[in-house]
Amino acid sequence: MPDEKKPAFAGNITADDVAAEAGVSRWTVNRAFRKDASISSKSLEKVRIAAERLGYVPDLRAASLASDRSNLVALLIDDFANPHKLVMMERLTRILRREGWDILLVNTLDRADAGHALLNASQRRVDAVILIGIQFDDEVLDTALHARRFRKLIIFARTSRNPNTISIAVDDVHAMKEIANYVHERGFRRPMFLAGPRTSSAHLLRKETFVDYWRQHFGSEPETVSVSAYDPTLAAGIVENALAGRNKATLPDILVCENDALAIGATDVIRHKLGLRIPQDIAITGFDDVPQAEGANYRLTTYRQPLTDMAEYLVKVLGSEEDRDFDRLFQGKLMIRDSA
Predict the structure, then answer these.
(1) Exposed, middle or buried: residue 210 (CB in 10 Å: 0-12, 13-18, 19+)?
(2) Residue pair 239/266 in contact by the 8 Å Cβ criterion
(3) Cα(111)–Cα(116) distance, integer angstroms
(4) What's the CA gap between 15 and 27, in Å, rounded?
(5) How would DSSP label each residue in 21-77?
(6) CATH 1.10.260.40 residue spans of the chain
(7) Are 305 and 170 a contacting pair, CB within 8 Å?
(8) What are the residue ranges of CATH 3.40.50.2300 in the chain?
(9) Which class does domain 172-304 fall in?
(10) CATH class given for the domain over 10-58
């Protein structure tokens, strides 16, 4: 004989059914599925057992409509040729989910798509939008801020000059000064800086900091070259063009790269197309400390971003009801390996 307490379809199970099964009020059932709600451990366990037995799943959309919060954030990300984006995405989503936040993940394809994605996110009743990418210039941000229905617009792993955004990033100025001092202390005197794309709002301060600091403290002008995207293949082509045909006396003695994606592409072309040794003929540094950096093929000296600390702070920002300046810079760690 079928269990009369359990309706035939789990989708028909309501909070009232769970309340009757657990011997508690409907109000207690609703509170049991609310993040940080005040409820005794005994009542919470009763509701959990009853819900599991009946196959009850709360209607999160209905719950969010009854509240002023949805516990949903939109994560907009681009530039997947850069391996550090996957590391950031993994760390962020893991910590957000652990703290009870659901994620709407959007891959933004180009600048035009970035603007559309931001406007679309504002219509999805998200509590915040988190941007990880290079497509978000001032015009795109201003359009989104004007039309937004979300509480916070967070730029992660970059700094923004826009006063209506929140920047959570590594301290590029401190990091690049540390790298410049290390490069000079190791005896390198002819650095070349390999930079990524320039953006007008969400920005890295690595190239200008290194070049200015080197000029002011060590009295020479570093060479610079740029790549249009953080793509190892593109970086390899740019580095090959910049170094091919030069004799060793005119080569830079170290290539300081804006991130590890560029450093990986540079390493491959220096070894396998230009036939040079690393670090004997030319040394290399990166930035980010992606998983490949520690591998035997690269052994890359790089700067590790404190992504866990940054993500934990982001969760605190999301949970805060305060309206204040949340911008924060973090200090990472120089990871010294064989490449320099």
Answers:
(1) buried
(2) yes
(3) 9
(4) 9
(5) HHTS-HHHHHHHTSTT----HHHHHHHHHHHHHHT----HHHHHHTSS---EEEEEE
(6) 10-58
(7) yes
(8) 72-170+307-331, 172-304
(9) alpha beta
(10) mainly alpha
Quick one: which of 92, 119, 111, 113 has its CA closest to 103?
A: 92
Could you give phi then psi for residue 238, rounded to 5 degrees? -65, -45
Four-CA torsion 134, 140, 141, 145, nearest 10 degrees: -150
Whole-number Å distance between alpha carbons of 231 and 62: 43
- pLDDT tens, residue by residue, 269-315: 999 999 999 999 999 999 999 999 999 999 999 999 999 999 999 99
Q: What does the pLDDT look like over 104-143, one tens digit per residue?
A: 888 776 666 666 666 666 666 788 888 887 666 666 666 6
CATH number of 72-170+307-331: 3.40.50.2300
Q: What angle do CA 235, 253, 305 make, to 5 degrees?
A: 55
Residue 272 has which token pair? 């396998």
CA distances to 85, 171, 203 from 327, in Å: 21, 11, 14
